[in-house]
Design brief:
This protein is mostly helical. Helices cover 61% and strands 0% of the residues. It contains 5 helices and no strands. 19% of the residues are buried. The model has no long low-confidence stretch (mean pLDDT 92).
Length: 67
């Protein structure tokens, strides 16, 4: 199951380019792009790093309603 997320939304609100946010979290821009598209499931540590860089909580960025 792929994870829906709001990474792109909060990245744009924070004013970061994909390259900037990727650099802040130690990943490639390509990996960030896949996360934003929902085609790559990041490990919990990376999810937390993204949330910290975006000044958001895990449930705000990565919450998925049960199906």
């Amino acid at each position: 199951m792929l994870t829906a997320n709001h990474v792109k939304q909060y990245r744009l609100i924070a004013g970061f380019s994909q390259k900037e946010l990727a650099s802040k979290t130690g990943i490639t821009r390509q990996t960030l792009s896949l996360i934003e598209k929902g085609t790559y499931n990041p490990l919990l540590k990376l999810c937390l790093n993204l949330c910290h860089a975006l000044n958001q909580t895990l449930d705000t960025v990565f919450w998925v309603e049960p199906s």
